[in-house]
Specification:
Layout: H1 6-15, H2 21-32, H3 46-55, E1 62-68, E2 74-79, E3 85-93, E4 96-100, E5 104-106, H4 115-118, E6 121-124, H5 127-141, E7 147-150, H6 160-171, E8 183-187, H7 194-200, E9 205-209, H8 215-221, H9 224-227, H10 230-242, E10 248-254, H11 262-275, E11 278-283, H12 297-309, E12 314-317, H13 330-337
Parallel strand pairs: 4-7, 7-8, 8-9, 9-10, 10-11, 11-12
Antiparallel strand pairs: 1-2, 2-3, 3-4, 5-6
Helix pairs in contact: 1-2, 5-6, 11-12
This protein binds iron/sulfur cluster.
Residues 107, 109-111, 114, 116-117, 153-155, 188, 209, 328 line the site of iron/sulfur cluster.
């Protein structure tokens, strides 16, 4: 049921021989009243509720575990119907409450610094499994969120059909009515889908996980770079901006002695200038099995100053929740490492 956009649901309802306004009623129960099962849709005639039950899966997510860090970051582990796990991270910062959404079970791209990539790829998430992360979190904490970022497990542009549907349901006035500017899609540089991103025609934010400014280093850190080298990514990003896309952000994980030199900062400033992008620096947070080190605060500050002196808007994102394995893919990875597919007890 939650796999359908409003337009798709209206077509489905009409195909069932029902009047189109029933689609608005159903969306109202799903996304405004947040009903948990078809029987609760009491404004709908019973025969229609029975038809819905027979023809459409409700598509709810099961919360399996939850861990909070003293800094307020909370990691939610969801068990999917096929026993796979995904994770969703809630990050409070001042008045902002950001949710980091997963788009795939695992990831194909095996970035050297990322837990998700180490465990390989299982499957794409359905739109309902993406939307479900938002619904369960908002219901659990009892309030709406302020920012929705596709930066959890998976590469969202590699599952664009389903991520796009989820974004449309999130943004639709009949759905969750979340403003497009509060939604961010972060890509490792899956250039094939940039054209589709342009076609979305919604003012969502796009960020590129860059992490290296030479193909030589990026090939090593992010194997996706062998397929889509830097110049291709930057060229596709320029075309996206020319087509009317919003300003981009470059995400850059600073890894001690690997990509934190001032030459790297110069290369990053040059790309940021080309894209008129701002830069978000993140100090590397240790991932089990990866032999990288976190830079010192002084090194992060020096790198930031260097960018700012070159008039590049720069923020430093604190690596939150390290004590609860809040780096991308770590909690689900722990379950996988144990070889368990935990069921609720
Ligand atoms: S950083 Fe993103 S693209 Fe790279 S392995 Fe992790 S989830 Fe995949």
């Amino acid at each position: 049921m939650r796999d359908l956009t409003f337009e798709e649901l209206r077509a489905k309802v009409e195909a069932m021989g029902e009047r189109p306004f029933r689609a608005a009623q159903i969306f109202d129960w799903l996304y405004k009243k947040r009903a948990a099962k078809f029987e609760e849709f009491i404004s709908l005639p019973k025969p229609l509720r029975e038809k819905l039950t027979a023809q459409l899966a409700f598509g709810a997510l099961e919360l399996d575990d939850k861990r909070s860090s003293p800094d307020g970051t909370t990691k939610y582990l969801f068990r999917l119907r096929d026993g796979e796990h995904i994770e969703t991270v809630l990050i409070p910062a001042g008045s902002r409450l950001t949710v980091c959404l997963s788009s795939q079970v695992g990831c194909k791209f095996a970035c050297a610094f990322c837990a998700s990539g180490r465990h390989g790829f299982k499957r794409n998430l359905a739109p309902s499994e993406i939307i479900g992360q938002v619904l369960v979190l908002e219901t659990t904490i009892g309030r709406g969120l302020t920012n929705y970022v596709f930066m959890g497990m998976g590469e969202p542009l590699d599952n664009w059909t389903n991520v796009e549907k989820a974004i449309r349901i999130m943004n639709a006035p009949e759905g969750l009515a979340i403003a497009a500017r509060r939604i961010t899609v972060s890509t490792a540089g899956f250039v094939d889908a940039f054209k589709q991103l342009e076609a979305l025609d919604l003012q969502i934010n796009v960020s590129i996980s860059l992490h290296a400014v030479s193909d030589r280093l990026r090939d090593r850190l992010m194997p996706i770079n062998r397929r889509f080298p830097l110049e291709k990514i930057v060229g596709a990003a320029e075309a996206y901006i020319r087509s009317g896309g919003r300003m981009m952000t470059l995400e850059y994980i600073l890894i001690r002695g690997v990509n934190d030199s001032l030459d790297d900062a110069d290369g990053l400033a040059a790309i940021a200038w080309r894209l008129r992008a701002k830069v978000n620096l993140i100090a590397y947070s240790p991932v089990e099995g990866a032999a990288f080190e976190t830079p010192s605060e002084a090194d992060v500050a020096r790198f930031r100053r260097w960018l700012e002196e070159r008039k590049v808007g720069t923020t430093v994102r604190l690596s939150k929740g390290a004590d609860i394995a809040a780096a991308c893919g770590q909690l689900a990875g722990q379950f996988k490492d144990k070889g368990t597919s935990r069921s609720k007890g």
